[in-house]
């Protein structure tokens, strides 16, 4: 495939790891960092010690804190900012694109607060259908630190434009990063966003010392909740059985590198949520997504009791053991219902 000029907008751990893959695959890749010192570290030391410590980056990977420089002549733009700033970042990017229409990829996982829009919907709202209508969603079980160390990783690409998905597949795929394509944006994005809420629940359970039975139950029933909402909104159940669903859920609920599980563990052990978040460098997306997920569930009449329990713990100061007791005392049901 012909090498392309690619702008990666967002220099957190995941954005840096993805930019590094693209640079290692021979593409002219420029990483935009909101923080000037992060860009300086990438350029001077081929490191991003703030967000991806201990990883040597490709010497060809350039970084900048000037967005116009990153976007100059870009044929592909990868949006990978935290979900709560995707809108302002991509609004600025859209103004700088000045009529050009690069291929848009979104690798942020979350749901926008108040609008309840998925990230691809935010991009279409900001950039217009002509630019972002055929965008490609990248999601799946992937810790940035492992991908950056060239450990085997597999994810999925979803788009309503099959040619765009295959083009992105060719940009990223190599001997340690494998990407599959499909067309279900709704299931892919909801799976990637909502698994963070279930990871919070699993972490809280582990923090309370409730055992692996409880964690397995939360994961399994959490996946059922995600599936109910995804199917109500037009997603496909099969997607949740794949990398963007159960694959990402397993990783985030059990992996030691999971930020959302880490937050849940701390809350379950009695630590203050605000203090836990203040002590983190990276963003735990599930905290904000919990609010949006509860709103989506209520708006569409989908019962999501685990999401509701996490919301009550994080936003209503309900004691975690009390929230669990309420979950366990719900009316008995068949395992499969809608």
List keywords for this structure.
2 domains; 17 helices; single chain; N-(1-d-carboxylethyl)-l-norvaline Dehydrogenase, domain 2; alpha/beta; Rossmann fold
Describe the structure in your own words:
The structure is a single chain. This protein has 338 residues and is an alpha/beta fold. The chain is globular and about 60 Å long. Strands 3-2-1-4-5-6-7-8 form an 8-stranded mixed beta sheet, with helices on both faces. The protein is built from 17 helices and 8 strands. Helix 1 (13-24) links the parallel strand 1 (5-9) and strand 2. It has 2 domains: 5-183, Rossmann fold (3-Layer(aba) Sandwich); 194-328, N-(1-d-carboxylethyl)-l-norvaline Dehydrogenase, domain 2.
Secondary structure elements and pairings:
Blueprint: E1 5-9, H1 13-24, E2 28-32, H2 36-45, E3 62-64, H3 67-71, E4 76-79, H4 86-97, E5 103-106, H5 119-127, H6 129-132, E6 136-139, H7 144-148, E7 153-158, H8 162-172, E8 177-182, H9 185-207, H10 211-232, H11 237-240, H12 243-254, H13 259-268, H14 273-278, H15 285-300, H16 305-315, H17 320-328
């Amino acid at each position: 495939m012909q090498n392309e000029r690619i702008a990666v907008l967002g220099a957190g751990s995941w954005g840096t790891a993805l930019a590094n893959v693209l640079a290692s695959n021979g593409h002219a890749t420029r990483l935009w960092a909101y923080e000037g010192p992060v860009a300086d570290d990438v350029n001077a030391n081929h490191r991003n010690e703030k967000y991806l410590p201990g990883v040597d980056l490709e010497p060809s990977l350039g970084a900048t804190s000037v967005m116009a420089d990153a976007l100059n002549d870009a044929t592909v733009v990868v949006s990978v900012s935290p979900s709560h700033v995707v809108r302002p970042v991509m609004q600025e990017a859209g103004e700088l694109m000045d009529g050009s229409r690069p291929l848009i990829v979104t690798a942020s996982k979350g749901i926008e607060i108040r609008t309840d829009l998925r990230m691809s919907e935010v991009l279409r709202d900001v950039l217009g259908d002509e630019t972002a209508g055929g965008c490609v969603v990248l999601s799946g079980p992937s810790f940035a630190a492992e991908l950056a160390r060239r450990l085997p990783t597999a994810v999925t690409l979803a788009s309503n434009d099959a040619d765009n998905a295959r083009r992105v597949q060719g940009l990223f795929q190599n001997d340690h990063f494998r990407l599959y394509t499909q067309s279900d944006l709704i299931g892919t994005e909801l799976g990637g966003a909502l698994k963070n809420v279930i990871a919070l629940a699993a972490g809280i359970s582990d923090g309370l010392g409730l055992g692996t039975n409880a964690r397995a139950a939360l994961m399994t029933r959490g996946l059922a909740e995600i599936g109910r909402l995804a199917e109500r909104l037009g997603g496909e159940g099969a997607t949740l059985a794949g990398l963007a669903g159960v694959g990402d859920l397993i990783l985030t609920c059990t992996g030691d590198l999971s930020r959302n599980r880490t937050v849940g563990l701390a809350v379950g052990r009695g630590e203050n949520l605000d203090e836990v978040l203040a002590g983190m460098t990276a963003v735990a997306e599930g905290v904000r997504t919990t609010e949006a997920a509860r709103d989506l569930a209520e708006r569409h009449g989908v019962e999501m009791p685990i999401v509701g329990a996490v919301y009550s713990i994080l936003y209503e100061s309900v004691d975690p053991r009390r929230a669990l007791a309420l979950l366990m005392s719900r009316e008995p049901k068949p395992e499969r219902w809608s």
